[in-house]
Design brief:
three-stranded antiparallel β-sheet, six-stranded antiparallel β-sheet, 268 residues, 19% strand, single chain, alpha+beta
Length: 268
């Protein structure tokens, strides 16, 4: 399996977190199931080989946008997998679409079905014809630099940027009232704007980031006990820890950390 990774140019870093790609060919009649869990980060994914299938999502296109999710699903991969993906910052995707990204919650949809101005048809062809990961990154960079030239609502964008930073620095343990106060908004106003710009409620997003921080703690020190993970990640008690992780992954913490090499995307 060939894996590539790149960070965006400085001008795009407020909107895009990373670019990544995977190339792999599975032996004939062999398949692989990959569980997709909540990361707090929307994605735009291009498939150039055979598209995976999913138990909970209908993947009807080779170019797919995945919004914020607070559920999980499995991808079944067979044959040749060739992927190029753009991972957005939590608030990044909203800057490029003309409708509230909350409409994409727990959805994976064809990019050309939601906003034709977002992704011109020639871009998919250019990416498919590109001979290297570096060239694909250059094509994506050119597209999104052009898109950010369109005026955006700067005040609310900055509010959401600061809110995401507060959430990240607190590892998902900041209160919604504190976030609203920092944004100079009432709680109701803040929740409405957060949902529109991030695509999920603040409460659900905090839950996802606390979970992502748990993954970070686990990968940083493999000898963590489940009790210490729960305590350091800010869960109230073991029951809270077990219930939230099972809700987001479909697995108990014991099964999740015993059998799966899962790393954090948000804190990477």
């Amino acid at each position: 399996m060939l894996y590539d990774f790149a960070i965006p140019s400085k001008i795009l870093q407020p909107y895009i977190k990373q670019y990544w790609a995977i190339e792999t060919i599975l032996p004939k009649e062999q398949d692989h199931s990959q569980r997709i869990i909540a990361t707090g980060l929307p994605e735009l994914t291009f498939y150039f080989g055979k598209r995976p299938t999913s138990d909970k999502r209908t993947l009807e296109s080779n170019v797919l946008i995945s919004g914020q999710q607070n559920d999980y699903y499995d991808l079944l991969i067979t044959d040749h997998l060739s992927v190029f993906s753009i991972t957005f910052q939590p608030n990044g995707l909203s800057q490029f679409l003309k409708f509230p990204v909350s409409e994409l919650r727990n959805q994976t949809v064809a990019a050309n079905a939601i906003d034709k101005s977002f992704l011109p048809p020639h871009v998919e062809d250019q990416l498919a014809e590109a001979k290297s990961f570096k060239k694909r990154v250059e094509i994506a960079e050119a597209l999104f630099v052009k898109l950010i030239a369109t005026p955006i609502e700067r005040v609310d964008h900055e509010r959401m940027l600061q809110s995401i930073q507060m959430i990240k620095s607190s590892k998902g343990s900041v209160s919604i009232d504190a976030l609203a106060s920092n944004a100079c908004l009432s709680r109701k106003q803040f929740e409405r704007k957060f949902l529109a710009y991030i695509g999920i409620s603040p409460k659900q997003f905090l839950k996802i980031i606390r979970f992502q921080y748990t993954l970070f703690l686990n990968q940083s020190a493999a000898n963590h006990s489940l009790t210490s993970l729960a305590y350091e990640a800010g869960y109230y008690d073991q029951s809270h820890f077990i219930n939230e992780i099972k809700e987001l992954t479909g697995l108990t913490p014991k099964k999740l950390f015993a059998h799966r090499e899962i790393i954090t995307d948000f804190f990477s």
